[in-house]
Amino acid sequence: MPETDRGRCIVCGACWDACPTGARAGLGTRMTPQEVLAEVERDRPFYEESGGGVTFSGGEPLSQPRFVLNCLRECRLRGYHTAVDTSGFAPELVVRQVAELADLFLFDVKCLDEARHREATGAPLAPILSNLRLLAELGRPVWLRVPVVPGVNDDEGFARALVDLTRTLPGHLPVYLLPCHDLG
Length: 184
Prior knowledge:
With 184 residues, the protein is an alpha/beta fold. It is 41% helix and 14% strand. α2 packs across α4 and α5 (92-99) runs parallel beside α7 (126-137).
């Protein structure tokens, strides 16, 4: 099985079509922002009763900035509370634009050591931490969420680094530890 160079992958789907075994495939349904909001509108009574709203998650919603920005604008026009569930791996400009429209960020922190982070996720850590700091400095509501993965980020070193990180960020960001599951 050929390996994917994640540094070059733009999630275009070409490898799905080219895969000789059919093992690579895209899932989901292509929708316009208007179609998404039509689905959301069907659940309005639940949001009104519960005080809930719309959460954009993924994959990584910030990897589709134009789409998520259009959806967030529509949600704002219709009075929906919005959350963006993100790894924070996105260009700063995208984070700034989304920050103007989203009510809450559910920000995953997976590793705080550059080498471990790159090994576990395939992405560099620096832009993620920079975007986290940006959101905190902008005063945007952020919940730090840590998927605790045995052997990856369940040691004392990570816990200390997480405490140090939260101490350097403005405001009081809640931290949620999420148990690892083997469903995927």
